[in-house]
Amino acid sequence: MDSSSILGSLAFFLFVAGVITYSVILYNGLVRLRNENDRAWANIDVLLKQRHDEIPNLVETVRGYMQHEQQTLLAVTQARAASMSASSVGQKAVADLEVASALRGLFAVAENYPQLKANENFLKLQNRITELEERIADRREFFNDDIATYNTRIGQIPDVFIASFMSLKPREMFKVSDEDRRQVEVKFQGQGAVGA
Fold it and tell me: How far apart are CA 8 and CA 30, in angstroms?
């Protein structure tokens, strides 16, 4: 065997080893991104669950004060039920907006009830839910950043070939349509009723 064939074989072996190593690096990077997406979604889901758990306490606390606002309480309860039954990211995003809107409506109506606003349990629950809303918004931003990176990577060459081999598909961001972003109208009933 002459030296040129040995060099050719060595070059071919190094090329194949390089391609395999690079493919493994791409594969591992895509697995890491997929797992980061799942972790980011799990973080949002935990916060959504915590908010769901606080809503019955809030409704029970305000029920006695807001006897003329049963429609507002019903809206919060129905939004919570819809959110809990949502399964996809898109459905949860829409349900999240409905819950947030219903809670904003409830807190706006509560402004008409000074005794309720002075209730320590109500204030604690309001602060807790507001804190959860802020944390959900922060986590949603992280989740969407992770999804954008993932979707970009699986569409770029050479990652697209490894993504195809792994059967990776683009993932849905946690967002809502323009129609779903519209402001919910809050109507006060009973004493001092005003349309918002």
Answer: 33
Output the six-digit token pair for 19. Answer: 């391609």
Kindly state the greatest CA–CA separation across the chain: 101
Q: Please write down the HEC assignment for all residues of 145-180.
A: HHHHHHHHHHHCCCHHHHHHHCCCCCCCCCCCCCHH
Reading the block at residue 45, the tokens are: 């889901």
- Phi and psi at 194, nearest 5°, equal -145, 145
Q: What is the pLDDT of residues 18-54, one digit of tens each?
A: 999 999 999 999 999 999 999 999 999 999 999 989 9
Q: What is the DSSP letter of 111?
A: T
Residue holding tokens 């970009």? 152
Asked if 174 contacts 144 with a C-beta cutoff of 8 angstroms, the reply is: yes
Tell whether pTM > 0.85.
no
* Nearest residue to 82 via CA among 106, 55, 107, 109: 55
pLDDT digits (tens, 9 = 90+) for 79-138: 899 888 888 888 888 888 889 888 888 888 888 888 887 788 888 888 999 999 999 989
